[in-house]
Amino acid sequence: MNSHASTVDLPAAVPAQRIHAGPAPYSNPYLAGIGLGLVLLAAFVFVGRGLGASGAASAVVAFGLNAVAPEHAQSREWFAGYLGGGFHPLKEWLVFEVLGLFTGAWISGLLARRVLVSVEKGPRVSKGVRLAMAFLGGALMAIGAALGRGCTSGQALTGGSLLNLGSWAFMLMVFAGAYGLASFVRWQWR
Amino acid sequence: MMAPFLKYGLFNEEVSLVVAFVIGIGFGFALERAGFGSARKLVSQFYLDDMAVFKVMFTAIVTAMLGVTYLSWIGVLDLSLVYLTPTYLVPQLVGGVVLGAGFVVGGYCPGTSIAAAATGRIDGLVAVAGVGFGTLVFAEAYPLVKSFMNSTAMGPQTIPQYFNLPYGLVVFGVVLMAIGGFVGAGWVERRVRAK
Q1: What is the crossing angle of helices B89-106 and B122-149, to 10°?
Q2: Which of A142, A144, B64, B116 is a plausible cystine mate for A161, CB 3.0–4.6 Å?
């Protein structure tokens, strides 16, 4: 899609497909799922914990706020676990894991020619509206993940595979919440 | 028993951060391969024409669940040393609804927003900023919701424990449910796409 090369004046020996190669198709979902499951299993076997994402955001925000407004940050009870008592390997662990997540997604995107600076949106909304919705959605996710003590990674995937009762309850409600609201925000996507 | 390796002292906490980075690379790679760096791909789950979210998630859950069950059954992995987030039933039900709403509004969940940002999606980057903002808001509001968040505390709780069912039976049930779900998802996709 991002290639505007023309094949008109190229030697016949050069395969036109290569020149025109746009983003590669996504993997088969079951293969990708097996890969994701094996990564999760490796986390259990190596460190005795699963994957996560939202916890890293809490840690980074706590550290960040502590850097600019230490008194305020330290008076917020929600951040106490990230700031009190020095070293918290369990929480730092997630920060490193998320740095890896970013790197791994970037490598995969590069290999498949899917790294592209762009705004993903439906055909009927402006970029500005889409970005405002992305911000609002992000804020809602953070609040949901805080209330649920984890997100789609830390609860649904990790707890799901450990048959964690609360994780299954959380996961069912994620689908319920998204399906319940889907028709109201259809204009954004379709 | 020899796993989890960290708990059995095969490496220390500092090395575990390197392990975290490597595992994270696998995590991000798998998410991006599946197409989960794309908001439109992700939300298609909720408009029923592409159920990849369900297929990938449940394949991953079944894969890891079978792996954990097998490794603990042959005595390699001590499941009691694998961290289980305690259940707080009602706050988790509410949190799930709010996260689901955020998912369809923003187009991502927290992990996939990072995968999207990594592959150049500005909306993904903005969603990550939104997560940061939401975290700040939650930290301010925490005193108001603290008692709610600690309500219906049930401790670390698995489905087999709670319903007093054999572990293997629940594993088998989840596998059957997933297979049924995959068949159903394919059927729904075909019907919605045909319209």
Answers
A1: 160
A2: B64
Q: Whose CA is closest to B15, among A91, A37, A46, A45?
A: A46
CB-based contact B64 A163, cutoff 8 Å = no
Determine, for residues B24 and A163 on separate chains, whether the beta-carbon distance falls below 8 Å. Answer: no
- Asked if the model's pLDDT at residue B178 lies above 80, the reply is yes
What residue segments make up the domains of chain A, in order of their start? 48-117, 125-190
Cα gap B89→B152, rounded to integer Å: 6
Say yes or no: B110 and B93 in one domain.
yes
Of residues A122, A138, A141, A139, the one with CA closest to residue A130 = A122
Q: How many CB atoms lie within 10 A of CB A111?
A: 13
Say if B101 is an interface residue toward chain A (CB within 8 Å): yes
- Checking if the pLDDT of A9 tops 60, the result is no
Q: What's the pLDDT score for residue A1?
A: 47
Q: Which domain does B146 fall in, by range?
A: 85-157
Co-location of B118 and B135 in the same domain: yes
Interface predicted TM-score (ipTM):
0.96
C-alpha to C-alpha distances, B90 to A26, A176, B95, B99, nearest whole angstrom: 37, 15, 8, 14
Rounded to two decimals, what is the model's pTM? Answer: 0.92
Cross-strand bridge partners of residue A164: B158
C-beta atoms of B100 and A49 within 8 A: no
Q: Evaluate the CA torsion angle B152, B154, B156, B158 in order and state its sign.
A: negative
Dist CA B192 CA B195 (whole Å) = 5
In chain B, how many domains are there?
A: 2
Q: Has residue A152 got a pLDDT over 90? A: yes
Rounded-to-integer distance, Cα A141 and Cα B128, Å: 10
B100, A177 Cβ separation under 8 angstroms: yes
